[in-house]
């Protein structure tokens, strides 16, 4: 087709319109300077000036004093899936969360991160509700105190002391969840563009959360005794991350436990490089014996501990906590009020009622025994299918294991999903996408049918 | 004192150290370029290069390839009080919130934004708790669905329809509070540095919340029928804000109601300037007759409605909602999961149980009658003291009024606080700090002693 004669000015305008159509230029973005574009297109600056003037008159672009020309309109809103690299949906962390949360009643969820309803203390919770309904002074109506329920904070301080973290109630801030606790800390400590370190593999929601803070996420390889200290030293030297987010006792997804040696070296490196650490202690009550805690070693100088009872009591009653330096607590409370006007006093009251009773301790002990049995059974079943555990966890709810024959976990997961079983493929947990042969199993969500479906899914994937 | 002989290089180094000590240069900040500093200090570039090299060797500053020299170390963490202009604590919004939340039992709080416990349906809440404790299918244990409790969302959709907002349950996302709802929307729509418009005067927590998003907050004067449309047009033209956050029915703090004319003009301007709007409808149930809703006029195209039941049912049971375009809801749910892993299913269940009963409607009707009486009494008492209401509100809980004799509301508030009465001085609500003679009164929190203390506080301030 012969193009009709086009003036040079028209051709510049067309170029800009084409870039807009292809979204290589987006609303709010700065255009090339007049000189740059003139050089690029081998045209005179006058031609470009004329084209920009006409595009401005058309309302396509706008001049901003002293700063050049910009595409009119606002940039598109933040989408978590846009911020990071595009992922196959079957290994998109948010998608896995939503699959597990939206799953139909009869779906099996060995890939999810929580216990089945039948393992949780339904009777005790109902009893506590009736107790609160009777108790004339319970907090059913008013906003809570800025730091949260005072008696619950005292209780949490005593619990932390049992784990070797010496802390007063004035260093504990209640939140609506462990996730909200980490979110507040990120708001407090991070600037957009900062670098933040997570474990690879590590809990996938940390990645989703950090994307919402527009920070750069770096991964440190995780070993059976904690983060790889050599690799960590190199990253701290070269990349200078601001914050490291990890879990200590029963690391998610590997089930590993931090060794005292690694804990000590990690804290020395953190001090040398001014690295702050968030230790997510959400699996604490699954431990039979206390593993080292970064917060205990460090005395909450540069470590902040967060936790909640979503795993051991109820995920429906939302209540988490932050244990941190007192001056940071003050600022975190201001941020909490500004962004949520405080956590639920009612949930705190219910949690306080449940923890107050000896029944919580008995419930947790029973749960540990039951988990140990389920762990043993799951390991047997996995080995029968040729699926190799990365380590034999000392407790907790997760087994991290490799598929045989180089099978791809995402493919196996897709095949299992077709039969109503939600698996957790390894790359969901891996920033470097280097865990394609792994799956994470929740031993409390592994009835026999899981392994039947898994066996068929593996066979189908091999074909 | 005679200064010892100092080399030119030393003097440059001393200059940098002095700026660091005075915090006119802070960790993470870029230093002046070598050429700039040489010109500024009338020294050769070689001298500055030498000084920068020695400061680099000392670990005080660092070179970043292609981008100049930066002060070593991390910037200090975000403090809400640092981000905005420094305010007298007595007119610092966060301080007022914390005063009200931390107040002792016998403190009177005419300055707070909620109803006294005795006005809230304690008996009904206790009954609903017992009902939930009995009901075998209630959500006491598991995480909720991503959007939140389906039956409650259906209920909310029907309520919105009664207010003229035609919306399906798939356009409703549950949150843990109205504040969290606005926070998620800000995360979704705003970039740091964006401009956001609020009412002046307006609800103070919007300012605190927006500071946490590092955006530039602009104010539009509020009139008895809504925002000043002339002023708004000018601001949209010149400043191009991205978002406007307001309440429609019973504006906080003025008690004003949006007129249909202003609502229509506002929406036309919003369309012309691509302005998005958050309408916080938290006072909806205090209305006797429905005032215009931006979300009803606009059909949720560019308006997002948020609300909660903290004011009419309980502030202890945290549950709010967002009503928005379906594509935005999807993204907001992803953000909610990433940053809080979902709202409390238990609170949603309790709210659902309370709203299901005819008793909620009766409770709210009774409350409106009681508020009308309290409003009448408060207006009489204020006029007796020469305090002039800005308008006579048609309902709601607030009276916005000017002190006589040019009295300063912050001073009067300080004097009243000494007698255990927390007032809300006007400048807490004013971005331009132009409401120094105003106080906001919560008519439900105004027993006779409030006016006795107020009278003495005014007399003392006059002296």
Automatic annotation (TrEMBL), chains A, B:
InterPro entries with a match to the protein in the record: Aminotransferase_I/II_large, HTH_trans_reg/aminotransferase, PyrdxlP-dep_Trfase, PyrdxlP-dep_Trfase_major, PyrdxlP-dep_Trfase_small, Tscrpt_reg_HTH_GntR, WH-like_DNA-bd_sf, WH_DNA-bd_sf
Gene Ontology MF term list: transaminase activity
Pfam families assigned to the protein according to its UniProt record, in alphabetical order: Aminotran_1_2 (PF00155), GntR (PF00392)
Record domain HTH gntR-type: where: 6-74
PROSITE patterns (alphabetical): HTH_GNTR
Superkingdom of origin organism: Bacteria
UniProt cross-references to CDD domains, sorted A to Z: AAT_like (cd00609), WHTH_GntR (cd07377)
Keyword Iron appears in the UniProt entry: no
UniProtKB keywords: Aminotransferase, DNA-binding, Pyridoxal phosphate, Transcription, Transcription regulation, Transferase
Stored Gene3D superfamilies: Aspartate Aminotransferase, domain 1 (3.90.1150.10), Type I PLP-dependent aspartate aminotransferase-like (Major domain) (3.40.640.10), Winged helix-like DNA-binding domain superfamily/Winged helix DNA-binding domain (1.10.10.10)
Entry similarity comment: In the C-terminal section; belongs to the class-I pyridoxal-phosphate-dependent aminotransferase family.
Record-given protein name: PLP-dependent aminotransferase family protein
């Amino acid at each position: 087709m012969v193009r009709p004669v086009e003036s040079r000015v028209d051709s510049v305008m067309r170029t800009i319109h084409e870039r807009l159509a292809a979204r290589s230029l987006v609303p709010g973005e700065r255009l090339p300077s007049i000189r740059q574009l003139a050089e690029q297109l081998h045209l005179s600056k006058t031609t470009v000036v004329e084209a920009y003037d006409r595009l401005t008159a058309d309302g396509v672009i706008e001049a901003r004093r002293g700063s050049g020309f910009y595409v009119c309109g606002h940039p598109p809103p933040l989408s978590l899936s846009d911020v990071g690299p595009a992922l196959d949906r079957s290994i998109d962390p948010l998608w896995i969360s939503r699959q597990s949360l939206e799953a139909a009643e009869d779906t099996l969820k060995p890939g999810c991160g929580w216990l089945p309803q039948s393992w949780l203390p339904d009777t005790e919770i109902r009893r506590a509700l009736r107790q609160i309904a009777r108790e004339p002074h319970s907090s059913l109506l008013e906003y809570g105190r800025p730091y949260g329920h005072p008696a619950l904070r005292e209780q949490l301080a005593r619990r932390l002391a049992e784990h070797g973290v010496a802390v007063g109630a004035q260093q504990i801030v209640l939140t609506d969840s462990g996730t909200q606790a980490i979110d507040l800390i990120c708001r407090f400590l991070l600037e957009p563009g900062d670098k933040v370190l997570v474990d690879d593999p590590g809990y996938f929601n940390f990645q989703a959360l950090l994307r919402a803070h527009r920070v750069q996420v770096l991964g440190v390889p995780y070993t059976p005794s904690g983060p790889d200290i050599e690799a960590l030293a190199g990253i701290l030297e070269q990349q200078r991350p601001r914050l490291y987010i990890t879990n200590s006792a029963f690391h998610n997804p590997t089930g590993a436990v931090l060794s005292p040696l690694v804990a000590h070296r990690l804290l020395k490196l953190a001090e040398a490089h001014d690295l702050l650490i968030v230790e997510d202690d959400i699996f604490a009550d699954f431990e039979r014996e206390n593993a080292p805690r970064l917060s205990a070693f460090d005395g909450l100088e540069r470590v902040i501990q967060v936790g909640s009872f979503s795993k051991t009591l109820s995920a429906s009653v939302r209540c988490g906590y932050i244990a941190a330096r007192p001056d940071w607590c003050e600022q975190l409370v201001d941020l909490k009020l500004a962004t949520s006007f405080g956590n639920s006093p009612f949930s705190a009251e219910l949690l306080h009622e449940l923890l107050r009773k000896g029944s919580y301790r008995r419930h947790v002990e029973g749960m540990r025994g039951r988990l140990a049995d389920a762990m043993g059974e799951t390991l047997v079943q996995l080995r029968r299918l040729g699926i190799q555990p990365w380590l034999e966890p000392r407790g907790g709810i997760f087994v991290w294991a490799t598929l045989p024959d180089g099978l791809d976990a995402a493919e196996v997961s897709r095949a299992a999903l077709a039969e109503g079983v939600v698996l957790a493929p390894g790359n969901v947990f891996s920033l470097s996408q280097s865990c394609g042969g792994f799956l994470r199993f929740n031993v409390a969500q592994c009835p026999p049918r899981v392994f039947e479906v898994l066996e068929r899914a593996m066979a189908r994937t091999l074909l």
